[in-house]
């Protein structure tokens, strides 16, 4: 049985800031079911300690002396749905209020990656495959080949795979980290292997040194080869194009299931779709909206950033609210967007609600209670929200980019096919046009609207097929 170790900075059910956590919470389980020994290693953040520490098992402790580090480390473990999760404890680096965005992030995640190799030696656990995710673990392949693999033949045997969840975040730091924090030869910078914009890039290192690289949708894998979405890495990626895979994400269909979800007011299936409206009434009542089963309820659960297309909504908000809809937006992000949404909520009392923050309960109720779901992203490597909304029979309005293009089938009024509504160009007019089309269909042709809901709920959004593709990549 091949052993696979996932190395990541976040993962459900323990900690989440974005879609990476959803993948780490679900994909290992799917691969485990295919007959592999799958484990995950994460930093032990404050929020994990607060919620899970009493359940964690101490595996080992040691003092890590390497490069500029001389730090005590403890490794804990916990099993979730058959997958063993390891946690790297260090008070100074990880027991903070947040996860990312600190001035010493390069040092923190250098430390984390060193510890993963120390952990392997200490536990005598040597994976056949080391699967790293996003920039936080981008140096794993370099360390394996140029440091720890030179010291241990078992580590040298490991194959390295890397998943790009979002190329925008690259882990770019001063080149001094190469020697000071990684204890690697500076020649790796001088020969260009690790150099990016006169510094060190964790993301570039992973792209250069991993055996295979993948992104989280097929369309995004093609988009990042061009200048528009390549984030300066397009030339490097084109050199590895024959090793670049696009594998769309899935979701945990056991957790995200309208038939069994205990959070929502009324469970339902594709056969009992009329019961869905009770969730709308419950959401309206809880959030202070006018309670009516007949009004079209439009929802959004998102990080509030330029990437997510929030500005398209704000630019056309007067027209959107003229469509006789209710609008619920949940999320946090850029201060200007939060301010604008709060001001807008005051203008459209009992018709619009902005829920500033994150609530799993409210997000699930939006997926279950809304009729239409907004995701007008500038770019979207894959996206999880549109998959969840379709699972709950809430029709997504998305831009044709990345994983949104790969997963949402646009409505065809002639043959009644589709699972949502799509637009191509990133501007407020095209977005408004297709949203109006969706709202018009809700009011004027409820038969077709319900047919699309059933189509959406019938789509396989599980990890099963995608897990098979990951296994193909491992064996390619």
The CATH superfamily of the largest domain is identified as: Glycogen Phosphorylase B
Oligomerization: single chain
Instruction: Name the average pLDDT.
Output: 97
Helical run tally: 21
Largest sheet: 9 strands, mixed
Net shape: globular
Classified by CATH, the class of the largest domain is: Alpha Beta
Task: Name the beta content range.
Answer: 15-25%
Distance between the termini: 17 Å
Query: And the CATH topology of the largest domain?
Result: Rossmann fold
Total DSSP E strands: 18
**Which consecutive residue ranges, at least 5 long each, have pLDDT under 50?**
none
**How much helix, percentage-wise, in residues?**
25-40%
Structural class by secondary-structure content:
alpha/beta
Alpha-carbon Rg, integer:
23 Å
CATH architecture of the largest domain: 3-Layer(aba) Sandwich
Number of domains: 2
Explain the overall architecture:
By secondary structure, the chain is an alpha/beta fold. It has two domains: 3-251 and 464-475, Rossmann fold; 270-458, Glycogen Phosphorylase B (Rossmann fold), CATH 3.40.50. Helices cover 40% and strands 20% of the residues. It is built from 21 helices and 18 strands. It has helices spanning 19-32, 46-52, 91-94, 105-123, 140-151, 153-157, 177-180, 187-190, 202-209, 218-223, 234-239, 277-287, 310-315, 317-321, 335-347, 360-369, 385-391, 402-407, 428-444, 446-458, 464-475, and strands at residues 3-7, 37-43, 57-66, 69-80, 83-89, 129-133, 159-164, 172-173, 195-196, 199-201, 212-215, 244-246, 296-301, 325-331, 352-356, 372-375, 395-399, 421-423. The strands form three sheets. Strands 3-4-5-2-1-6-7-11-12 form a nine-stranded mixed β-sheet, with helices on both faces. A six-stranded parallel β-sheet has the order 15-14-13-16-17-18, sandwiched between helices. Helix 18 links the parallel strand 17 and strand 18. Helix 12 (277-287) packs across helix 16 and helix 19 crosses helix 20 (446-458). The mean pLDDT is 97.
């Amino acid at each position: 049985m091949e052993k696979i170790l996932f190395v990541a900075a976040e993962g459900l059910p323990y900690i989440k800031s974005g879609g990476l956590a959803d993948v780490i919470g679900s994909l290992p389980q799917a691969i485990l079911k295919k007959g592999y020994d799958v484990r995950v290693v994460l930093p032990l953040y404050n929020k994990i300690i607060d919620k899970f520490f009493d359940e964690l098992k101490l595996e080992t402790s040691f003092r890590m002396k390497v490069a500029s580090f001389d730090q005590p480390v403890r490794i804990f473990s916990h099993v979730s749905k058959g997958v063993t999760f390891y946690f790297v404890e260090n008070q100074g680096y990880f027991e903070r209020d947040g996860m990312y965005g600190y001035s010493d992030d390069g040092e923190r995640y250098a430390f984390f990656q060193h510890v993963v190799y120390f952990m392997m030696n200490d536990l005598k656990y040597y994976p056949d495959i080391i699967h790293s995710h996003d920039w936080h673990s981008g140096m794993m392949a370099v360390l394996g080949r140029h440091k720890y693999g030179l010291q241990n033949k078992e580590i040298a045997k490991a194959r390295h795979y890397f998943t790009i969840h979002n190329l925008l975040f690259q882990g770019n730091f001063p080149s001094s980290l190469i020697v000071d924090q990684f204890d690697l030869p500076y020649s790796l910078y001088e020969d260009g292997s690790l150099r990016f914009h006169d510094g060190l890039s964790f993301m570039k290192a992973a792209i250069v040194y991993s055996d295979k690289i993948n992104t989280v949708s097929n369309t995004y894998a093609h988009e990042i080869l061009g200048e528009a979405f390549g984030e300066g890495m397009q030339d490097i990626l084109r050199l590895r194009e024959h090793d670049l895979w696009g594998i769309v994400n899935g979701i945990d269909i056991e957790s995200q299931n309208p038939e069994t979800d205990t959070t929502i007011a009324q469970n339902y299936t594709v056969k009992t779709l009329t019961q869905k409206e009770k969730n709308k009434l419950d959401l309206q009542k809880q959030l202070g909206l006018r309670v009516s089963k007949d009004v079209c309820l439009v929802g959004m659960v998102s990080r509030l950033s330029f990437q997510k297309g929030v500005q398209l909504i704000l630019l056309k908000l007067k027209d959107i609210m003229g469509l006789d809809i209710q609008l619920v937006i949940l999320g946090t992000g850029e201060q200007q967007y939060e301010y604008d949404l709060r001001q807008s909520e005051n203008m459209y009392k009992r018709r619009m609600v902005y829920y500033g923050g994150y609530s799993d309960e409210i997000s699930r109720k939006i997926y279950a209670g809304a009729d239409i779901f907004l995701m007008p992203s500038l770019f979207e490597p894959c996206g999880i929200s549109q998959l969840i909304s379709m699972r709950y029979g809430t029709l997504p309005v998305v831009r044709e980019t990345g994983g949104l293009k790969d997963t949402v089938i646009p409505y065809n009024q002639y043959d009644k096919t589709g699972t949502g509504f799509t637009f191509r160009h990133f501007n407020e007019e095209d977005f408004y046009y297709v949203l109006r089309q969706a709202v018009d269909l809700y009011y004027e042709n409820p038969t077709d609207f319900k047919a699309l809901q059933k189509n959406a709920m019938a789509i396989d959004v599980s990890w099963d097929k995608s897990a098979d593709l990951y296994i193909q990549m491992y064996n390619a």
